[in-house]
Specification:
Elements (H helix, E strand, L loop, with lengths): L12 H22 L21 E4 L20 E7 L4 E2 L8 E5 L8 H5 L4 E5 L9 E5 L4 E4 L5 E3 L5 E4 L11 E4 L2 E4 L13
Antiparallel strand pairs: 1-2, 2-3, 2-4, 4-5, 6-7, 7-8, 8-9, 10-11
Length: 200
């Protein structure tokens, strides 16, 4: 049947009943979700999930989704601020600031202990979020090749697991182990520790 606007009305009694059933189902699911009866992880925002094995990296500075390679990270710094990205889905994990990662490329011979195992061709990756007050670690001290948090001046040594050199930070930046896959810098394992502030 046509209405005055010339459009065909395709709503029938059966379809109206089906819509009512769907809406009722959604209301029930919503009530169960609110009551904690449905696992909230099923509704997690994939863009806010922490980096996963196989994720690649894209620059935070643009809209592009071109995965970074070792050659894109300058030797000796400064670091490149990046987001992890699920390459299969093209999903950039930019839904949480806790997913910001610092990539810095150092001389592999200067890397200490477990940092060597976590690196890929001298590139190391760390959370960009300071564990002291949750500020972004945004300063590179080129002469010392160290990270600095501009809020309270904690300094970190990226060649030695982002160990705290000085300042109020209670622990190192969380490390993100890397590997090279298909020529691209890729997440090898999840973060080595909790990202950001540890609740007290």
């Amino acid at each position: 049947m046509n209405n005055a606007g010339g459009r065909s009305c395709c709503c029938r009694a059966g379809e109206t009943a089906s819509r009512r059933a769907v809406l009722t189902g959604l209301i029930v699911i919503g009530a169960e979700f609110g009551a904690g009866l449905v696992d909230s992880s099923a509704f997690a925002d994939a863009a806010s999930e922490r980096p996963k094995e196989g994720d690649v990296f894209v620059s935070t500075g643009g809209e592009g989704k071109t995965p970074l390679e070792v050659k894109d990270i300058p030797l000796g710094g400064p670091p490149v601020l990046v987001w992890p990205m699920d390459p299969a889905a093209g999903l950039v994990r930019s839904g949480s600031r806790l997913n910001k990662v610092l990539l810095v490329r150092l001389d592999p011979s200067t890397l200490v202990g477990v940092t060597r195992e976590r690196a890929a061709d001298g590139v190391v990756a760390y959370s960009a979020i300071c564990p002291h007050a949750g500020c972004e670690v945004s300063v590179w001290v080129g002469e010392q090749q160290t990270f600095e948090c501009s809020c309270h001046y904690s300094h970190y040594n990226p060649s030695d697991g982002a160990a705290v050199i000085d300042g109020p930070a209670p622990r190192p930046l969380a490390a993100l182990p890397l590997k090279i896959a298909d020529g691209r810098l890729t997440v090898a394992k999840p973060f080595s520790g909790r990202v950001g502030i540890v609740p007290t």
